[in-house]
Amino acid sequence: MRGPPMTHAPENWMRPLGSTGRSVSAVTLGTSPLGTLAPETATELVATALASDIRTIDTSNGYSDSRSEPVLGAAVAAAGGLPADALIITKTDASGRDYSGDRVRASVRESLERLQLDHLPLVHLHDPEQFEWDEIAQPGGAVDALVALREQGLVGSIGVAGGDVRVIRRYVELGVFDALLVHNRLTLVDHSADALVNDAIDRGMSVFNAAIFGAGILAAPRSGITSYGYRPANEAVLSAVAALADLADEYGTDLATVALQTSLRDARITSTVVGLSKPERIATTLASARRPLPDELFERAAALLPPASAWLDAS
After folding, report:
1. 68, 124, 189, 314: which sits with the fewest CB atoms below 10 Å from its CB?
2. How far, in Å, CA of 265 to CA of 247, rounded?
3. How many other CB atoms sit within 10 Å of the CB of residue 146?
4. What's the rounded Cα separation, in Å, for the pair 217 and 233?
5. For the chain, what are the domain ranges?
6. Taken in order 204, 210, 212, 214, is the CA torsion positive or negative?
7. Regarding the domain with residue range 14-310, which homologous superfamily does it belong to in the CATH classification?
C-alpha cells in the first residue's frame, strides 16, 4: 500500500530495492552527461561518488551517444571496482528505429560489456513512448525480451522509464515490471506522475524520481531559463518558480535544495536521481539533502503548486 506523500526528511538513507535484497541510496547519481566529460573529470566524478554516501548510479545504453556506459565502466575500474554495497542501474535503448526483442537483448549485452559487469541488478525499458505500443508490447517484443532476461537471471529486476505518464501507465498496468522511473513529472511545479506513482506503489514497485529540477529552472530560477521539462514553460509554471525562489530566500536556503528535499521527503520515492557533471557537486548535493529545514517551508511550497492544467501531461 502507498504511504503518505510527504514525511519528515528521511533518516533511512538506504532503501530496499523491492524484494531483491539489495538497497539503493536516497540519492542516485545520474550519468546522462558522463560521456561528454573529459576522461579525468569523469573518473574523478565517479570515484568521488563511490567514496561518498551515494551508493547508486543510474545510466543508459544510449546516453551521450552510447559513450556514458563505457566511460562509467572505465571510471569504476579505475576507482578499484564497484563496492559490494553499490550498484549500477541501466536502461535499454533502441538502435535507430529498432526496438525489437532482439534489440533489447543486444542492448543488455552491450551494457554488460561496457560496464564490465556480469549481472545487472535493474534494467529499465527506456522511453518506450517514442514507439508504437503494439510494436513494443507485441508477443516476442521488447517487453517480453526484458521479462525473459529477468527469468534467465541475467537481469535482477526490470523497470520502465519514461516521460508521458499517459503512455507509461499502460506499461505499468501490464503488471510485469518491478520498478518505475519518472522524470520532470513529480517536482515542485508538476505532479503529472502523482497518480501513476501511487499505482506503482500499490503494485509493490520501486519508484525512481528523476529530473527534479525540471531540466534546470528549479536549480537556477533566476538564471533566465524559461523552459521546463525540455519545452517552453507556461506562465503558471514561471510564476510558481518565481514565488518558490522567493520562498526559499525567506528561509535562508536555495530552491535547488527545496526541490531535492521535496523528493527525498516523499515516502513513495525509493531514490531521487540527480544528474551531476562536476565532482565538487557530490558534496554540495549531499549537504543540500541533509540541510535542516522546517516542515512549514515544504507545506508552503506545496501550496504554490500550479494547477493541473499547467503540468506537462495535462489531460
Report:
1. 314
2. 18
3. 25
4. 9
5. 14-310
6. negative
7. NADP-dependent oxidoreductase domain (3.20.20.100)
pLDDT tens, 56-110? 999 999 999 999 999 999 999 999 999 999 999 999 999 999 999 999 999 999 9
Residue 212: count other Cβ atoms within 10 Å of its Cβ: 25
Chain-centroid distance of CA 96 in Å reads: 23
At 20-57, the pLDDT tens digits run 899 999 999 999 999 999 999 999 999 999 999 999 99
Residue 16: strand, helix, or coil: strand
**Grid-cell match 523528493, residue found:** 263
Amino acid at 110: E
Query: Taking CA 39 as the corner, what is the angle to CA 112 and CA 13, rounded to the nearest 5 degrees?
Result: 65
How does DSSP classify residue 139?
T
CA distance 82 to 60: 17
The structure's pTM equals 0.96
In the chain, what's the furthest Cα-to-Cα distance? 55
Which of 291, 288, 286 shows the shortest CA–CA distance to 25?
286
Q: Which residue has the cell 525499458?
A: 125
8 Å CB contact between 26 and 285: no
What's the CA gap between 191 and 313, in Å, rounded?
A: 9
Question: What amino acid occupies position 166?
Answer: R
Tell me how far the alpha carbon of residue 244 is from its chain's centroid: 23
Q: What are the phi and psi torsion angles at 73 (to 5°)? A: -60, -45
- Determine the length of the chain: 315
C-alpha distances (whole Å) from 172 to each of 54, 125, 127, 165, 271 are: 28, 11, 13, 10, 18
